[in-house]
Inverse folding.
């Protein structure tokens, strides 16, 4: 490289170096703010197309993470980190495409199906009857029937109902924020 060219480059950086560094900083800060802000505001918005877990069903107990609700079966007041449904028809459907994480059974919650979805969502269906239609590892589509609501969750029900939970990144969230349950 010619000496004069080298000098020109040196002079260029002497003159504009600080501005270039400052510019890189501004872009870096803008990117950081731009990427973190929308992420924290995305809590209640998603492009995922949820469907209701039961059709023509009535909400018998809504979600509440602060107000206590009375549980007749356990004779105590408690928060309710899910939504209970009772329908004319007991069919229960996956609310989104996903993969079955587990199918379990215990005396308090009955048969429980857990399904993993995109974007960190997991849906949990409790109080299902023993005629569960899916098994661990199955791929399911939104709207696909996975079982039937029953009275197996003795901690809550004496008649056939579904206790439905929706988790985002492992934390129970209000399903009403994501699923149009008024127009089911
Ligand atoms: Zn419940």
């Amino acid at each position: 490289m010619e000496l004069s060219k080298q000098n020109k480059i040196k002079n260029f950086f002497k003159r504009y170096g600080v501005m270039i560094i400052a510019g890189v900083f501004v872009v870096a800060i803008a990117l950081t703010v731009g990427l973190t802000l929308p992420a924290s505001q995305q809590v209640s918005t998603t492009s995922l197309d949820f469907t209701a877990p039961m059709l023509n069903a009535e909400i018998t107990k809504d979600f509440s993470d602060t107000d206590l609700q009375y549980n007749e079966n356990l004779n105590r007041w408690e928060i309710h980190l899910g939504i209970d449904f009772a329908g004319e028809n007991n069919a229960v459907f996956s609310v989104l495409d996903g993969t079955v994480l587990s199918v379990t059974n215990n005396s308090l919650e009955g048969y429980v199906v857990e399904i993993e979805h995109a974007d960190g969502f997991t849906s949990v269906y409790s109080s299902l009857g023993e005629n569960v239609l899916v098994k661990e590892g199955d791929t399911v589509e939104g709207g696909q029937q996975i079982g039937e609501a029953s009275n197996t969750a003795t901690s809550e029900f004496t008649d056939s109902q579904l206790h439905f939970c929706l988790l985002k990144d492992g934390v129970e969230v209000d399903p009403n924020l994501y699923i149009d349950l008024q127009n089911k």
